[in-house]
TrEMBL record:
Ligand binding (S-adenosyl-L-methionine): 159-160, 189, 212-214, 288
GO biological process: rRNA base methylation; tRNA methylation
Catalytic reaction equation(s): adenosine(2503) in 23S rRNA + 2 reduced [2Fe-2S]-[ferredoxin] + 2 S-adenosyl-L-methionine = 2-methyladenosine(2503) in 23S rRNA + 5'-deoxyadenosine + L-methionine + 2 oxidized [2Fe-2S]-[ferredoxin] + S-adenosyl-L-homocysteine; adenosine(37) in tRNA + 2 reduced [2Fe-2S]-[ferredoxin] + 2 S-adenosyl-L-methionine = 2-methyladenosine(37) in tRNA + 5'-deoxyadenosine + L-methionine + 2 oxidized [2Fe-2S]-[ferredoxin] + S-adenosyl-L-homocysteine
Name of this chain's protein: Probable dual-specificity RNA methyltransferase RlmN
Native source species: Dehalogenimonas etheniformans
Active site location: 84, 331
Cofactor(s) annotated in UniProt: [4Fe-4S] cluster
Length: 344
């Protein structure tokens, strides 16, 4: 719920509007896990809230912390569904990567989440809860830097955000309006779901759009993302141009480099030609190996060569820093490990 909805509840109980704002503060600023913690509220009002509402916080099942400070959590939701979320500490920012679905219906060939199937969409509260939980987990685990606050959120965990459109947009607004995270520090990553991109550009939310392209041509993209062939790569890039024109926000193109699959010089040239004239930044992501997937990480020399081709064509390109390399940091790995049936 947002402040407006919480004020409506408090006023229906004959209480002033500031009580609703207090509830908002307890939920989104202080991370309260239940109404009993909201000590600034009158006791009778707390009891009414307990009788009619639930603070739907998740339960931490597994925590992994990497040597670089990256922390990954496997969370169990109130119905038993499990999702992953990641917190990443950088010198200049504290970033959280959230899931929008339990599992994923897209089923990318190189993604551990896609191999585990799809269970359901998450609610806006379940998405925001991940940010609150990671914030608390990092602050308890990092004594040298207390009271850190997440200031960047990427919708890039389990699931396709634009296939859970309403929850994604409401969660974006809650993070922006209630938690004070700048819309420009919010990123929505999509596999290229064109209707969702077109809807998002009308929301007047200046969030960054990241498109997980992973292939410069339709044949290769069909191999890597067989379930999403309705829109070819040209249509996806055309829609990116529309998004930039509507929002003024530069597009991020995510490209996962897989050894001898999509990392050749020829494919780098194809990608350069595809992106010509688009105000974009290419983020090269070395594939993060996962058990059971028949792919390998591109050698660093091939990554550098691919990057050099893009740069020579005037395209801004960076290589994503590998975070959490010594834990199950890739999307879906921790959930898959937890839910894998025992060997008889």
């Amino acid at each position: 719920m947002n402040t407006r909805e919480l004020i409506a509840i408090t006023e229906s109980e004959g209480l002033p509007a500031f009580r609703g704002r207090q509830v908002t503060d307890w939920l989104y600023k202080q991370g309260a896990c239940d109404f009993d913690q909201m000590l600034t509220l009158p006791a009778p009002f707390r009891e009414k809230l307990k009788a009619n509402y639930t603070v739907g916080r998740s339960r931490e099942i597994t925590r992994q912390q990497a040597s670089d400070g990256t922390i990954k959590l496997l969370l169990e939701l109130m119905d038993g569904a499990k999702v992953e979320t990641v917190g990443m500490l950088y010198a200049e920012r504290f970033s959280c990567c959230v899931s929008t679905q339990a599992g994923c219906p897209v089923g990318c060939a190189f993604c551990a989440t896609g191999q585990s199937g799809f269970k359901r969409n998450l609610t806006p509260g379940e998405i925001v809860d991940q940010v609150l939980t990671v914030n608390g987990a990092v602050n308890t685990a990092t004594e040298a830097r207390p009271q850190l606050k997440i200031d960047h959120v990427t919708f890039m965990g389990m699931g396709e955000p634009l296939l859970n459109y309403n929850s994604t947009v409401k969660a974006l607004r809650l993070l922006n309006e209630e938690m004070g995270i700048s819309a420009r520090h919010l990123t929505v990553s999509t596999i290229g779901y064109v209707p969702g991109i077109r809807s998002l550009m009308k929301e007047k939310l200046p969030v960054t759009l990241a498109v997980s392209l992973h292939a410069p041509n339709d044949e290769l993209r069909r191999r890597l993302i067989p379930s999403l062939t309705r829109w070819n790569v040209a249509k996806i890039i055309e829609t990116c141009r529309e998004y930039f024109m509507a929002t003024g926000r530069r597009i991020t193109i995510e490209y996962c480099l897989i050894d001898k699959i999509n990392d050749s010089q020829e494919e780098a040239v194809q990608l350069s030609e595809l992106l010509r004239g688009l105000n974009c930044h290419v983020n090269l992501i070395p594939f993060n190996p996962a058990a059971g997937l028949p792919f390998k990480t591109s050698p660093q020399e091939r990554v550098k060569a691919f990057s050099a081709v893009l740069s020579s064509h005037g395209i801004q390109v960076t290589q994503r820093l590998r975070r959490g390399a010594d834990i199950d940091a890739a999307c879906g790995q921790l959930r898959r490990r937890e839910e894998k049936p025992p060997v008889a």
